[in-house]
Request: fold
Amino acid sequence: MTKLGDASRHAVCVKNDGYGASLELHKVYVVLPDTEAARDGMVRVVDESGEDYLYPEDYFVPVDLPESAARAIRGGR
Reply:
């Protein structure tokens, strides 16, 4: 499986234990590359605060999105 922090740009949240205010289950999040975090089993995600934070990698499943959907999630950027 591809490491989230290495290649994937989006992931679905499948677990949010302890992070209920920061992560919504089944929501697609933007993943930022962070190879150091990936070595520790973590992934850098732009969460509900709009900032990027590290979360356990097993809280997410990588997804490939059509470019139009990816753009919409990134806010048109």
In short: The chain has one domain: 10-73. Helices lie at 35-39, 67-73. Residues 10-73 form a domain with the SH3 type barrels. fold (CATH 2.30.30). The first helix runs from residue 35 to 39.
